[in-house]
Design brief:
Pfam families: p450. It is built from 15 helices and 14 strands. With about 400 residues, the protein is of the alpha+beta class. Bound molecules: protoporphyrin IX containing FE (HEM). Protoporphyrin IX containing FE binds next to helix 7, helix 11 and helix 15.
């Protein structure tokens, strides 16, 4: 039997762990010694932690047992139920989930995203041009955040003059700092979609908000509130993780210049580099489910109503699955990471996110843009998403 190393103090729900600590030390210990670990209730309700790849994947596969409708993120009990529960794509269970998803799936399919690629390339070029003009920029706010936001705005049919306004609102809504500012910005986003969905319901066009505003599920139109919440799900889903993954990937390349050089020398490595950026950054830190029937995992009895949390960065560094998991290797193959989830709720924007990352790094490399650190990166203080909040860099191009 393997000797038991001294257990670290396990507390994965301290936001400072992700900005200043080392969650990997805790995850490594849990994978080895307590793969199904009970965290007692404190400010957050009690929950089971799953940290091994195979366990996370098996639970992901079993949407009948592990429900999304009671929320997919840990939240304090006094905040009550998530308002999107049973209504948004991310927070519904089958069979309704399949019907909702069928409304929008086609928009995110490989063929549709391929058709959008020329416009996405123009958007990316424009963002990089503006950043180069300034030279000294925050890679998060000035580069990584803008590309996915403009792209999802385009797909949703947000008029172009409003993109900048939504950029400001999402920046405030996702920013660390004052929770009230965040809350107000989020309410303003919901208010924006209230007006947009009413407009699209009356004058439908060829865009995602029109699809939602005119769609029927089970013979009934979605209520305006359901349309608004799903728009919010698309906007947040479409921007937050991609922004952090793109910036987290850049930070990782700055720390591993040999990997950036290898990529500069062989553009054919871009697809596997993007997969490795996704695995390595694993920006969605935790995803939660609620058990709706009893189930036993590694001898632990999980009861109906119990919360079960999947720690995706841990699964993506599982030494049982990945060779040399703590090495950042853009040539890694196979690379079946879980950064985009798995199964029933597998990321709707997976194709889009991959193309956005490929276009952004491709643009920087094609133009031989030199990216240099220009101050200290700041990591997010959050248990929901992890990665850079600020990444000051100098950008210089020869062409
Ligand atoms: C690097 C970028 C991204 C990462 C790491 C990421 C991660 C994830 C993960 C882990 C899930 C699964 C949630 C669960 O299991 O409950 C998910 C679902 C989802 N993602 Fe992404 N995502 C990214 C980009 C995008 C983009 C560009 C969109 C565009 C709209 C998007 C929209 C969604 C939506 C709507 C869902 C819910 C799907 C469902 O429940 O059926 N995501 N994403």
């Amino acid at each position: 039997m393997a000797e038991m190393s001294a257990p670290p103090h396990i507390n994965l729900v301290d936001p400072a762990l992700y900005s200043h600590g080392d969650p990997f030390a805790q995850w490594r210990w849990l994978r080895e010694h307590a793969p199904v670990h009970w965290q007692p209730p404190a400010e957050l309700p009690g929950f089971w932690s799953l940290t091994r790849y195979d366990d996370v994947r098996a639970a992901y596969r079993d949407a009948e047992t592990f429900s999304s409708a009671r929320g997919i993120l840990l939240r304090p009990a006094e905040h009550g139920a998530d308002p999107g529960g049973g209504r948004t794509l991310a927070l519904t269970d089958p069979p309704r989930h399949r019907r909702l998803r069928a409304l929008v799936d086609e928009w995110f399919a490989v063929r549709s995203i391929r058709a959008l690629e020329p416009e996405m390339r123009d958007i990316t070029r424009g963002v990089v041009d503006r950043a180069l003009e300034r030279g000294s920029v925050d890679f998060v706010a000035d580069v990584a955040a803008r590309v996915p936001l403009y792209v999802i705005c385009q797909m949703m049919g947000v008029p172009e003059p409003d993109w900048e306004h939504l950029y400001e609102l999402t920046s405030q809504a996702f920013a660390a700092g004052d929770p009230l500012t965040r809350r107000f910005a989020h309410l303003e986003i919901l208010g924006y979609f209230e007006a947009l969905q009413a407009d699209k319901a009356a004058n439908p066009a060829d865009d995602l908000v029109s699809v939602l505003a005119t769609a029927e599920v089970d013979g009934e139109r979605l209520s305006p509130d359901d349309v608004i919440l799903n728009c919010d799900n698309l906007l947040v889903g479409g921007t937050e993780n991609t922004r952090i993954a793109a910036a987290g990937g850049m930070l990782t390349f700055l720390e591993h210049p040999d990997q950036w050089q290898a990529l500069a020398g062989d553009a054919g490595l871009l697809p596997s580099a993007v997969e490795e950026v996704l695995r390595w950054t694993s920006t969605a830190t935790h995803i939660m489910r609620t058990a709706v029937r009893p189930v036993e995992i590694h001898g632990q009895a999980v009861e109906p109503g119990d919360k079960v949390v999947f720690w995706l960065p841990s699964a993506n560094r599982d030494e049982r699955v990945f060779d040399d998991p703590d090495a950042f290797d853009i040539r890694r193959r196979p690379n079946r990471h879980l950064a985009l989830g798995f199964g029933e709720h597998f990321c709707l924007g997976s194709v889009l996110a991959r193309v956005e990352l490929r276009l952004l790094y491709g643009e920087l490399l094609d133009r031989s843009v030199r990216v240099e650190p220009d101050g200290e990166a700041k990591l997010l203080d959050s248990i929901v998403v992890n990665g850079p909040e600020r990444l000051p860099v100098l950008l210089k191009a020869d062409r």
